[in-house]
Amino acid sequence: MQSTVNNNENWTPRIVAFFCNWCTYTASDLAGVSRLRYAPSTRVIRVMCSGRIDPEFIMESFAKGADGVLIGGCHPGDCHYSEGNYKCLRRFTLMQKYAEQMGIEKDRLRLEWISASEGKKLQEVVNDMTDHIRKLGPSKIKEVVETIVK
Amino acid sequence: MSKQKEDIRIGFYICHCGHNIGSVVDVPGVAEYVSKLPNVVVSKDYKYMCSDPGQEMIQKDIKEHKLNRIVVASCSPLLHESTFRGATAKAGLNQFFMQMVNIRENTSWVHEDKEQATIKAKDLARAAVHRVAFHKALEKKVVPVNPDVLIVGGGIAGISASLTLANAGKKVYLIERDATIGGYMAKFDKTFPTLDCAACILTPKMSSVLKHPNITLWTWSEVSNVDGFVGNYKVTVTKKPRYIKEELCVGCLACIDACIYKQGKFYDEFNFGLAKRKPVYIPFPQATPQVVVVDDKTCLHFKTGKCQQSCAKACDRNAFDFDQKPENVEINVGSIILTTGFEPHNPVKSPNYGYGKYPNVFTSLEVERLVNASGPTEGHVLLRDGVTKPKSIGIIHCVGSRDEKTNKWCSRVCCMYSLKLAHLLKEHTDADVYNFYIDMRTPGKGYEEFYDKLLNEGVQFIRGRVSEVTDWATTDSEKGKLVIRAEDTLIGIVRRIPVDMVVLSVGLEPAKDAQEVRKMFSISCSSEGFFLERHPKLAPVSTFTDGVFIAGACQGPKDIPDSVAQAGAAAAEVLALIDAGHVELEPNTASIVEEKCCGCQVCINMCPYTAISFNVEKGKSFINEALCKGCGTCVAACGSNAIFQNLFDDEEILSEIDGLLVE
Predict the structure, then answer these.
(1) What is the Cβ-side half-sphere exposure of residue B343, based on CA atoms within 13 angstroms?
(2) So what's the pLDDT on residue B663?
(3) Which of B173, B330, B360, B645 has its CB surrounded by the most CB atoms within 10 Å?
(4) How confident is the model at residue B15 (pLDDT cuts 50, 70, 90)?
(5) Rounded Cα–Cα distance for residues B572 and B74 (Å)
């Protein structure tokens, strides 16, 4: 794990990635089977549906030191549970606003629809998000939270 | 946030997977690191955890060290979760006390930086160690399997699967959207490499399907809705109006003779327009069932309402019913096999080959009909004018295959069917036949030998992709001909070959409505649009939706032997499901803690399965576990934290987050 960071170029951010079991988690397996190389920044937490992602999970991730949170779900109309991804989208829009008000830069929270066949897209999204967060540098929310708690 | 229960005893097992994980992740280093985490009693690495010795190691440790939680860091849980759950259960521990960490697909296969990959593996392992402490003992829900089977698509794959299952005594519903079963195979004259007559091997099977007491065959029908889950699907089939009472029609075809149109006038789908049909028709003489169909788009009665209905009058069984409406039938089945086939590439999308511009450019499927003894020309190979025999023929391979502009994939069957057509065209016309190919791909039993045979039959082979087909003559000998321009890569020159007839060996594409079908059955497609199998090697006919299987060209381009083999495999998977008699469902359902529920009813609107209802008397909401499919959307929506979900509960996921981020 990274402790001190002098140069963002060589720094690997830590992104908590919530992937739905049916589409994005499968895409991530496909990226692996296809040996698509991408930045070693994500830490995947598998949930059955993106609709399961509680706003609390997102805030907890930031509070505990995540530099970014990535949510991956099925494309609109493709949800294994009909419409869980729409519920996720609603919460996401709200969470984005909330996160900004909390001082978390917009680029640190991202939602992407990645289907089971889109291993390539997964690779591109992770790399792109990693680049964006690299520019922002490490998240300071954890420190802020810890100061407040103290 | 590690759970402070003094009795948590975790065994951690990390797999090298040969070199798959071990060459990128410092496996012993991770094992060493995890051994120092709280609650971890045993931490070991092994070359192949999924092997017998690996599993036995876990079982032995559970007993010896009184372990009550297991974490396995290896491949994706989608591949081996059930393996390690099984190993855990064998040692007498509840199988849900096991958690997997994906350090192969998610880590070693996608990262090159060994240091970072090892850091990631440690983070993920720590998260699982935190999470597993919160796991609860659960039981899988056991539900009975309805032994009836739905098969969608009556091509050779659907026919084969139906017969296998029906012969095993299972009740099969075979649904076909066309008026007859038989699929593309019914259009072929001969099959490669044996050159046996396609009809002779297919039509007996078609009639067996029709006669079989265990098969309910509905042609001219489509599946319009699918509900339920493995073992218990509720399927709505829409029977399109045929305007014929199927049970009365005996296939005498008197109505076709009596039709007001004395000659066929409309595009004949079965012959790709090479012949014309009447509005009342039968697709081909051996169609199964032998029941005519009225096409309401071309029938004069439907267009003007002024037809004297000579067809209906000619029917001495009063089988006509012009008032038929689409009829929905609901059936209950336990498993489903999709054999919905492919779509041939439309060569209009490859305009340089002149299809649609020059009449004597044909598709391979049109030529299949031309060489067919029961085809529109009774097996005479004639140019589009219907009289001229071609003296020279060029067959262009890979039209809509291995092409960046259209489809990148190899369609697998085209080399072989092009060779077959070359042989048949030579036999029928004695013309000069040229094959233009990129690579000759003939893997398969007897296939390379067939190519060898063709080489000795005087068929010409030119290795190179054709750039264009043109009627622009540069010499007298090219006048009135179609000129095929191609680089002959074996001698390094561009050649112009004038021919009378061009045959385009069109590739195989996903069916046009594959995306809609995929959504209806909750399965996935791979990037090119064919249905996605659960695992390319270990579960080639299963899908990610339990109880839904795929076979034949809907899964990818495939020839007849491979389609039949897959149909057999799918039938075997279904039989395994039926004979087990029951399925175990993941217990990831949600439930509401009554005391915590504030009765706000926010959850009720979240549920797509109407599994949540409100008890007015108590002022609380309740989840019907039988209807819950375990998405967890309501859990995330509950403001009172009153809903928990098995396997994905808040404390499990929150501890996983903490474990990931806090060392």
Answers:
(1) 14
(2) 80
(3) B645
(4) very high
(5) 30
Alpha-carbon span A124 to A118, nearest angstrom: 10
Report residue A42 as tokens: 């994500």
3-state secondary structure of B559: coil
Residue B595: count other Cβ atoms within 10 Å of its Cβ: 8
CB atoms within 10 A of CB A147: 9
Using DSSP's 3-state secondary structure scheme, residue A4 falls into: coil
Q: Can you say whether the dihedral through the CA atoms of B639, B640, B643, B649 is positive or negative?
A: positive
Same domain flag for B93 and B121: yes
Structure confidence at residue B5 as a pLDDT band (50, 70, 90): low
Q: How many residues would you count in chain A? A: 150
Which of A44, A43, A69 is closest to A56 using CA atoms?
A69
Residues in contact with B259: Cβ distance below 8 Å, sequence separation at least 6, in sequence order = B278, B279, B280, B310, B311
Interchain contact B102–A (C-beta under 8 A): yes
Output the domain CATH number for residue B602: 3.30.70.20
Interface test with A, best of B17, B81, B110 (most A CBs within 10 A): B110
Q: Which amino acid is at B624?
A: N
Complex confidence, ipTM: 0.95
What is the β-pairing status of strands B172-175 and B215-218? Answer: parallel
Q: What share of chain B in percent tops pLDDT 90?
A: 95
Chain A contact for B585, CB < 8 A? Answer: no
CB A56 within 8 A of CB A27: no
Q: State the residue range of the domain holding B618.
A: 590-646
Return d(Cα B563, Cα B174) in angstroms, integer.
17
Answer yes or no: do B547 and B565 share one domain. yes
User: CA triplet B398, B402, B408: central angle to 5 degrees?
Assistant: 135
Within the 109-148 window of chain B, which residues sit less than 8 Å (CB to CB) from chain A?
109-113, 116-117, 119-120, 122-124, 127
Whole-number Å distance between alpha carbons of B458 and B365: 23
Burial of B63 per CB tally in 10 Å (0-12, 13-18, 19+): exposed
Structure tokens at A85: 């991804």
Structure tokens at B72: 């396995």
pLDDT single digits (tens) B218-239? 999 999 999 989 999 999 999 9
Helix, strand or coil, per DSSP, at residue B542? strand
Find out if CATH 3.40.50 is the number for domain A15-146: yes
